[in-house]
User: Fold this.
Amino acid sequence: MAQSYKSLKEDFVSNLSGGGIWEINYVTAVAPAAVLLWSALQSRRGYFVDYGFTAFTTDFLLNVGAILAATTIYSSAPTALNTLLILPAIVLYVVSRGPRTRSKKSSHPVLTNGVPEKKEGQTILDPLPERPFITHYRGSMMVVTCVAILAVDFRVFPRRFAKVETWGTSLMDMGVGSFVFAAGLASARPVLKAREAGKTTSVGASMTAAARHSVPLSLLGLVRLYSIKGLDYAEHVSEYGVHWNFFFTLALLPGFAAIIQALPRSLFSVHLIALSATVVYQVILDTTSLKAYILTAPRDSLLSQNREGVFSFVGYFGIFLIGQAVGLDILPRRESSSATSVSGSRPKHQILTRLLLWSAWFSVLLFLALSYKTFGLLVSRRLANLPYVLWVSAFNCAQLVLFCAIEVLMFPGLCSTTDRRTESQRCKEATSRVLGSFNANGLAIFLLANLLTGLVNLSTDTLQAGRARAVVTLLVYTLILAITAITLHSKNIKLKL
Assistant:
């Protein structure tokens, strides 16, 4: 890569100031709006039950194409795109009654004192049931992330969506934080499984298990580092540092989380530990020279060369723990002793209520942190400071609220069975195949997206690509990712990184 072209690429993604929080909300609202239309088609028409070419194409265009459009050709009119997705969903919901179900025998089991009777051969329901709305949330987050990491190199992707230099908010700043939040949310499941089994794990065993996740991520970080340096690839040094990259941040998270989980449950709250750590970090930033060191120090040592990646880890770890805390709260099955719990409506509404409380809590904290009448802090993804942690947490909890509300509205009888196999089948039918596939192999697809992004940038002058060429390139790129994800998922292949 010629030096002049490399400099142009670096300048293209440097010294940016981002955009407004509400615009980011409007753009990202396309993801739940697309899932709303998908859910209306499925719940009212059974459109995706027979999953052939037409169903896949529709699934892809809704849950990937809409996000691609929102960040490119509809970037200046996200409200119009949301309207185009929501209106047909409303019409379908109002006009159609829904397809006939295969069997309703297990929907209303016989009650004895308000408790369903167990039939012969009936299996006990999974204490950690599938949550299609979480799959949709994590899958959509992965799609947005994969779209953005290549789209940012084209002019069709607005500069206000790219990562800001130091202070401000942008779509990609939210994307990297959401990736960590979603990872924390998923990490709650093995913790809950261990608790359900009554297992107590030592620090050593926890660290060994964490190392199995960290070592591959560290190797990927090294591969990315040597690839960038060896190919003279354009890089944004102030993002993480000279040698540091996002894979190293991801690699460190499991080990630190294992230490926290090894503490006695009666002595700590994951949520409070996360907030306490980020508050202390913010105080240190504001009362010492650490902020100036991170932002302005000369890069004359290994630490100073990678200061952004090293110190921002505190904030990312806080985001990870908050995601885990939310997961610990909403993933377990919630039962009620009353008859209404048999229909599944009460547990679902309980989850929605708890998510609303999480969202309101972090939204209030964010408002207090940003308000000039209180603290007047600024969001900084580069520092991963307290306002950034609160913003990412509030946003992701709000996204979960939307996806959960869609599931409650469109699939009210999702948990109305007392049979594990039937429940699993219903959850499968209520889950987008494309988003489910992106979720199942998230890190593997993220790695492939990074490889394809590098390939495109080394073979194409993205800065000179016109609007149509850029969109077509991105469409082919996302189609490759979707087909790969679908293929892996259909063959029940899960690549653990």
